[in-house]
UniProtKB/TrEMBL annotation:
Range of residues in the leader sequence: 1-29
Localization (cell): Cell envelope; Cell outer membrane; Secreted
Keywords assigned: Cell outer membrane, Membrane, Secreted, Signal
Protein's name according to its UniProt entry: Outer membrane autotransporter
Main location: other
GO-annotated cellular components: cell outer membrane; extracellular region
Amino acid sequence: MRVIFLRKEYLSLLPSMIASLFSANGVAAAIDLCQGYDIKASCHASRQSLSGITQVWSIADGQWLVFSDMTNNASGGAVFLQQGAEFTLSPENETGMTLFANNTVSGEYNNGGAIFAKENSTLNLTDVIFSGNVAGGYGGAIYSSGTNDTGAIDLRVTNAVFRNNIANGRVSQ
């Protein structure tokens, strides 16, 4: 069983969603691993590594998609994108939410505590919270490197909270 704690400040963000996830004393109920890309119940996702493909995840009203407590010795603690990959996380209507919390990357390639995107990848995030993610290099929450063709969007983040994410900068070799 995995228990997830959210800071008290988040409770004021979207009360209707919080009420569907939490039990007494502000402790989260155990949530299952995610199944597929159409998230109908709150769940805890595994690390996503995409290369040249498209994934669109939709989070049902009142539900949470959680990427937390992942540790990796390479870039992208929770999500790694490369070679034109496209990754979208958004609510089905208006009240689904995604949380990236306490993800950590270390090692030689250690950028993007929560998300790393390179080589013309596209990242679209709506209604997300980034909290306590750590990168040994750059991008405590998100690291994006590279450009798309004219008119395309590399990174779009809408309605987000960034809190206590840390990037320690490169260590000389």
